[in-house]
Structures are given as structure tokens and as C-alpha cells.
Design brief:
The protein has 317 residues and is of the alpha/beta class. The protein is built from 14 helices and five strands. The protein has two domains: 157 residues, Rossmann fold; 112 residues, Zinc Finger, Delta Prime, domain 3 (Up-down Bundle). The structure holds zinc ion. Zinc ion (ZN) binds next to helix 3.
Length: 317
């Protein structure tokens, strides 16, 4: 899948490779859904291709063929295991990849969600970054650059992937799906303009589910539905994972109430006071944080919906 908004980043990196100025370590930061790992893999291919030109990788050499088949031994991908990148993963990488002799092309290590390194993993990586081996490129990707050690950040070339314009993102999505433009715009809106998040929303038919959730909230407000019925439906369909999209819609309502212009037409408007909207958004945030804990989700969901119902109740008086 070619992602048009990464074009500039790829062109700049191609120049670094052809001019033999590839850094030892790169830190790719962007919000979720921008294609950081796709970009890291494209960079790996450019650094590993045996016939690189200013037009990019050749897609024909041995390295390109192995990468296409997904089994090039000079490319290592590291991901969190149970939400943590462990020190053993980093040590294995430094012993297996870094210390073995390399050919003319680069060896590449991609560390996804680098903010998930714990203190010992970060320190182990730092040792490697302090004495960078020849012909090894380490690419870190992160959604949360603030959580990385400053000493790690300072040893990487930092590349930020800015979000594409709405126009580029919506045109790209229109090519992938036969959805109506209203749906594409709505998906981009609730995903905070992250094209790949919008992509998965459209692919998984999440839009209808989010619209149904809004209808349920409005029905709860009008007391035309039972709270337990709603919470059961949301829980059994796993809709509670869509609550962050509901937050975006509520915050848009808040912006409208404060006289700001909405970035989307015809988005659900709700007759709820400002402080109530803000309170519910905060409750959703707390609910999402608790999802990481081994608590009864169904019970938490009932509590959350009760907050909404009470808030609407107090607004009606
Ligand atoms: Zn090649």
C-alpha cells in the first residue's frame, strides 16, 4: 500500500542513501495511523537495496527479493511483548545483529513503539547508540516521543511525519473504498485526521457502530431506553473500544457551544450543557485507562453510562 503523504520523507531518505550519509539511528515520530512502520520498512529497503538510485530501490536485486518475501535476515523487527520491550530483546539484537560482520549494505533494526522500552531496555539500547557499529541502521518509531529518554533522543536523527492535508487523506481513502464522501469525511473526522485509523474505521464498518452509539446516548438522554440494555449491547459487540470516537464527537459539540466552527458538517449535535460534555469526556478517558487493568469491563461500562444518564437528568431540571 503506497501512502502518498510519506513521499517527501522517502525522497529525503533516498538522497541520504545515495550520498552515503545514512545515520546510525533514526527516530520516527508521529501520531497513530500515519504509517510510521511502513515508512521504516521503506527506509530499510532503501538502505539494503544493492542497486539503489535516486529513483529509489530496484525491487529486483537479491536484497529486494528477500525483503519482498519477508525473510531477509539483515532486517530485524522488534515489538513489545505484553506491552513491554524487554531488555532481553534489546540484548539479543545487539549480540545477533550488531556484532556480526556485515556486507556492503546496511543491516536494519526497526523498534516499533520504542516508548514501550523499560528502563533496562532503554539503557541497553543507549550503550549501542553510544558506540554505533558500522553499517547498522536502527530505526525507532513512536507515538509518544515525550516518554523516551532524552539521551536516546539526542543520539537519533529525529524525523517527524506530519499528518497529510484533509484533501490528500480523503482522496487516498476514496481510492481505497467505494464509500460515500460523507462517510470518508466522518471517518477522518473521528480519527482526528489519521488516514490509517480512518482506513480501518471504513474497512471494519465501524462508522455505523459509532452512529448507533450516539443514537443510544441520545435515547438514554430522552429516557427512552434502559441503561442496562445499552451497556449490554455495547459490551457484547465490543463497542466500548470505539469510545474515543465518541469523545471526538462530544468535544466537537463543546466547540460548537463555545461558538467555534465545526470542522465537519452535520455531525451529531447534543443538547447537553458544556460542563456535562466535558465531564463525560473525562469519564471516557478514565474508562479507557481502566481497560488496561483486570477489572470487570461490563460493570465499568454501566458506571460510565450512569454518569451520562445522571448528567442528562440534572440538565433536564
Ligand atoms: Zn534492490
Amino acid at each position: 500500500m503506497s501512502l502518498p503523504w510519506l513521499k517527501n520523507n522517502i525522497e529525503q531518505f533516498t538522497s541520504l542513501v545515495t550520498e552515503q550519509r545514512v545515520p546510525h539511528a533514526i527516530l520516527l515520530s508521529a501520531k497513530e495511523g500515519m504509517g510510521k512502520v511502513d515508512l521504516a520498512k521503506e527506509m530499510a529497503q532503501l538502505a539494503m537495496c544493492e542497486n539503489i538510485t535516486e529513483n529509489g530501490a530496484c525491487f529486483q536485486c537479491g536484497a529486494c527479493e528477500l525483503l519482498k518475501a519477508g525473510n531477509h535476515t539483515d532486517l530485524t523487527l522488534i515489538k513489545a511483548e505484553n506491552a513491554v520491550i524487554k531488555v532481553s530483546q534489546i540484548r539479543k539484537l545487539t549480540s545477533d545483529v550488531v556484532l556480526t560482520s556485515s556486507k556492503n549494505q546496511h543491516k536494519v533494526i526497526i523498534i516499533e513503539e520504542a516508548e514501550k522500552m523499560n528502563a533496562s531496555s532503554a539503557n541497553a539500547l543507549l550503550k549501542t547508540l553510544e558506540e554505533p557499529p558500522q553499517k547498522v541502521l536502527i530505526i525507532l518509531t513512536t507515538n509518544e516521543i515525550g516518554r523516551l529518554l532524552p539521551t536516546i533522543k539526542s543520539r537519533c536523527v529525529k524525523i517527524n511525519v506530519p499528518p497529510p492535508s484533509h484533501d490528500i487523506a480523503s482522496k487516498w481513502l476514496a481510492k481505497q473504498f467505494e464509500s460515500k464522501i460523507e462517510d470518508i469525511n466522518f471517518a477522518l473526522f473521528i480519527s482526528d485526521n489519521s488516514p490509517l485509523v480512518a482506513y480501518s474505521i471504513l474497512q471494519n464498518n465501524t462508522l455505523d457502530e459509532v452512529k448507533n452509539m450516539v443514537k443510544d446516548l441520545l435515547a438514554l438522554q430522552q429516557q427512552s431506553v434502559e441503561l442496562l440494555e445499552v451497556s449490554k449491547k455495547w459490551y457484547s459487540n465490543n463497542w466500548h473500544h470505539h469510545l474515543n470516537y465518541i469523545s471526538v464527537i462530544l468535544l466537537n459539540n463543546l466547540a460548537l457551544k463555545q461558538g467555534l466552527k465545526s470542522t465537519i458538517d452535520n455531525c451529531f449535535t447534543m443538547n447537553v450543557p458544556e460542563h456535562g460534555l466535558l465531564l463525560f469526556v473525562k469519564s471516557i478517558y478514565r474508562f479507557s485507562k481502566r481497560l488496561e487493568l483486570p477489572l470487570k469491563v461490563e460493570l465499568q461500562l454501566e458506571k460510565l453510562l450512569l454518569t451520562w444518564k445522571n448528567m442528562c437528568g440534572s440538565a433536564n431540571h
